[in-house]
Amino acid sequence: MIRYLLNKMLLTLTKHYHYDVRYQQDILQADLAAFLKFMGFQTMATHSGPVPLDALYAARIGALLSEDCGPCTQLAVDLALEAGVPPTIIQAIVQRDVAALPTEVALVVNFTELVLTRKPEADALREDDVLREEIVALWGQQGLIALAFAISAYRVYPALKYALGYGKACNQVIVAQQAVVPGKAPEQ
User: Which InterPro entries match (predicted)?
Assistant: First the structure.
């Protein structure tokens, strides 16, 4: 009975977001305990703390794009739109057009990229340390934790899907009925 109810929840997700949940259904059917742990993990992934939604989705979408998963990125874009993040901001996040973003969102885009690439800077003071300090100044330690959760948790979804054989390459994302190529700012 519990599997039936959980599967019904997954089908609702599919219907609402047009998102392929077969990898979750496979987990549910093969190992209920593993699926319940996965559902528990979702509480970490959805934590937001005091970070504004546009900045939070900058971290989430940036993490997904780093793992090259189109369907997961599309779901995050759809969730951001549903949460009220303006399409222009989402498009700039996907394209990594930091010049088109509000300062705080650009800060999170740059911080997310540095965290994901772990590029040590030549100077004694690393750029990610400077950005981390700015984040703490804006939203406190709770904001830094929320962004750390977003970056680390959202990387799990594409990795899990790829490991289970459901990975898809990310070629374009649709933002408010407009196709957007990740990491490429529009031609001016």
Answer: AhpD-like
**Domain map (residue ranges) of the chain:** 1-44, 46-180
The answer for 51, left when phi > 0, alpha when psi is -120 to 50, beta otherwise, is beta
Q: Which one-letter DSSP state was computed for residue 118?
A: T
With 0-12 / 13-18 / 19 or more C-beta atoms within 10 angstroms meaning exposed / middle / buried, residue 30 is exposed
pTM of the model: 0.88
Q: What is the pLDDT of residues 110-137, one digit of tens each?
A: 999 999 987 654 334 566 688 999 999 9
Q: 30 falls in which pLDDT band (50, 70, 90)?
A: very high
Tokens of 13: 């997700």
Query: Which run of H or E residues covers position 17?
Result: helix 2-17
**Pair of tokens at residue 167:** 């990975």
